Amino acid sequence: MTQLANRRLAMTLFSGERCPYCHMVRIVLAEKGINYDLLNVDLDNTPEELKDLNPYNEVPTLVDRDLVLYESHVIMEYLDERFPHPPLMPVDPVSRAQTRLMLYRIERD
What we know:
By secondary structure, the protein is of the alpha+beta class.
């Protein structure tokens, strides 16, 4: 992890070209206007760097300085909280819960 932090100055996203969860994270990054390095990973031959960062050896994996995150929802919530403008979720708790439920249904149906 330290080696990665020393080599990269920007936020880095390990992503798969055909992974829908990676696409969701990339949409959030685009909507927020966040600069990041994109590393497309061959899912049949994942790099050692990813294996060292993520115990599940999966994408998406986001590295932001010394922080390593995986699981698309965790990454998206982090990005929305770290970069609050423009907000992607409603402020009202009821509307927020309804939005989360709608996203859950979209993923499941």
